[in-house]
Sequence to fold (607 residues):
Amino acid sequence: PCWGYRESYREIWYIFFGKKNYVFSWLLLQAKRVKRQELFAREGLTWPKVVHFFTQHLEKREQQTTSQELKSVLQAAKQIVGTDYGQDIIESAAVFLFKTFHNKEHVGHEETRAIKQMFGPFPASAAEAACAAVDRLVANIGESQAEAFIQSQSSHQSLDHGATFGRNIAFSFDTYVLDTQDTLPWEEEPDESRNLDF
Amino acid sequence: SPRVPLDEQHVTEPGGRPLPALHPQRKEERCFLLYAPPPEEDSPAQVEEFLENSQFIYEDMEWLLALPHDKFWCQVVFDESLQRCLDSYLRLSPRGTDPPPLYSSPAVMAMQHSLHRSVFMVFLRMATHKESKENFLTPAVFAEIIYDNFLFDIPKILDLCVLFGRGNAQLLHKMIENIFHQQPSYYSDLNETVPSIIQVFDTVLEKCGLQSEDTGATEPLKLNTHLRITTMTMSEEDLSDLVLYLCDTCSTLHAFLDIFPEASSMFHQHGFLSRVSSFYEMAVPDLEKAVKKRHFTKCRQEDLWRRLCHSRRRIVEITHLLLQHTCLQPILEGSEDTAVFVDDLLQIFTAFLQEKRFLVDYDEQYPVADDISLLQQAFPHLDETRTSYLLQGLESAWTSLGKKRSQPS
Fold:
């Protein structure tokens, strides 16, 4: 590779794939969201397991209300992912909403960002409905029990950050900057264009 | 048991099939995103978009850094989306010389900082063939991998220096030194790149109307030839772009030579000093005049002036770095060929006598008399006639430009 070739190659690549091509960027982002959803779906907790968890400990008279709340979460998930997707994706989204809201009373900034990052733009009312329904579900069981259930079901192998490369390497943000002491020498020369005398 | 390099290891994947440890099938489908720089305007939607995109990239980088050695290299070698992502960061990440953003959203700054560090660590890991006693690649295979897969190339190395340099100079030097040491083809690439870098300066001269691309300076222009565009007649936008281009080139080149001075000799061999000094002599006064006279807004004009002064200073510093590493250092270290280096240095200084403006600016920052004095101490047989001629020429350059030294040298 040489300077000229590489630079022009990069310029072409930038025009097609860089920020100038919004459609391409949007497609990449969509692909990334789908990838993230797939990874999440592989993490272990499934919607049937959530349903089983909430129904097994409850008496019959409570089961009907619980069933309604679970349906609300599923319905919210459907609104968030859109109607084009199959039941698997909707259930996986419902699990995500359950995990996101199991210890939250309101839809905060972080939760909004997490949902958007996973599914893209979504109706706020759906998130609020899901949050409220999960809150009522967890209130019946107890937050600590819900937390223990989520932990026990998670097969997600968390990354060993103790072994992360570069963890102990000092990094500096000090960078080459523009010299700032240079100011225009306005007084140095008279403006010739204004002194023309014919 | 004897320790085996990664490139010779085999693993058994689920299903019982043995695979080489470095195999495309062991790559994860991660789909790395392209980096987009922080927004120029403080619009909540754009800020949110930046944060979302960068968060994805940051998480992916952290995931990559936490991967075991074998999985890291599978990803690095076989995932094209990762290389596109890293390439986009090097290409588009804000430089320290860029104008500071008009606003400073703490969330944007924090995200950019986190990303900046994690991207650097990924490059550092890619430049490390031996992570530990257990985790390593055969040096020759490492050399082949980084070169054949374009994990590093000369433009990327230049970008790395300007983006991460100064604060991480030692680490960067080690990285680049290792890359060049393991894979000497990078020296050939650099050798091919230097003329292209010199060409950048020629292009600036052409755009300024100071050097014709296809006609010699002595050849008269034909009557129907379009009037040559100069810095006073080109559009203000083009002039502005030209100054930014020059500033970017000088900053990048300076950062590279500052961090990896071993490259100096290659630039020297291509006659870089004579080209850059004559460029300076022709282009600097012309651009200075145009920036002062053209009708920019005051703010734009101040910025362009600063960039021009910055470029001037970087050219002088580049010259000093080259002289330091190709002539002065070998002389002071008592090289066997001291006489050759002394002659080379005096010849270069003598050639600079023709470029008065350049010589005076160089002398102002790095007094030539100091270097001559060092030469006299290190090389007693120095030809005093030559040094006197040189110092007199220098004095007359100062006089002819009507400048006074701020301090006697």
Summary: The mean pLDDT of chain B is 91.
